[in-house]
Amino acid sequence: MTTRKDAIKMLTLKLNKGTIVVSSLGMTSRYLYAVNDRPLNFYLVGGMGSSLAVGIGIALNTTRRVIVISGDGDALMSAGTIFQHKQLEIDNLWHFILNNNEHASTGGQSTCFGAIEYSSLSLNTVVIDIEKGKGDAPRIPLTGKQIKERFVNAISNNISL
Amino acid sequence: MYDIKHDFLVGVPCSKLAKFIEENDTIIATREDEALGMAIGAKLMGKNPLVFMQDSGLGSCLTLITSVMTPYDINIDFFISIRKKPPYHAVMGNIARQLLELVGIKKYSFIEEPE
How many beta carbons lie within 10 A of that of residue B95, not counting itself? Predict the structure, then answer.
């Protein structure tokens, strides 16, 4: 089974130009920053459970490809957005759920993610099973405001890194 | 009242907002925080979103308001129906305005029921 870090590497090191990446709160965002930081990454440092919702709002307003990288806990928290993704037929949006069946950041408490075959529930949704455990990656040394400004500037300058 | 300049309308329905929803192109979310998350995404892409809900839904939004809207300096306009009745609406109906001010929501408008 792969690690969170390797899964994020696999998903982001060969991105198509101009792809937007939204990552969920916690280790997912931290590893994404460590592995492949770029202005078109929107890290949620906050907004627990909201990565897909934010990704939907972005994807509905661009023709770019949008990738959301979340975890099982994050995806479950706003489960309605999984159906919203399908209902609105947002086909430029891809949702990758890094699943270890636990709330790794808070001590490994179990989630109920295993109850359902999530990838069958929506559009462009891929579950990647990862090793249990939190791992370790440094905190992102950017403020929320910096993350946003960098992202918004990249969009308005039509950057396609 | 909501403003014509809003170009991304997302929220959770309320009977008091039914006319507004019917007359406009809106996205109906499952929960208020999901609506707010979508509005935040739209805002990042240069849209001017409006999130609508009834007062009771404001509680669901507090995590996103305090942990994303404030630290990222992302302003979203709210359109809220204030229901002071039945009793399960009374508390939030009475504090909604203060709560919005407390968490720093700068622009909001209400539809209020007569007392």
Answer: 13
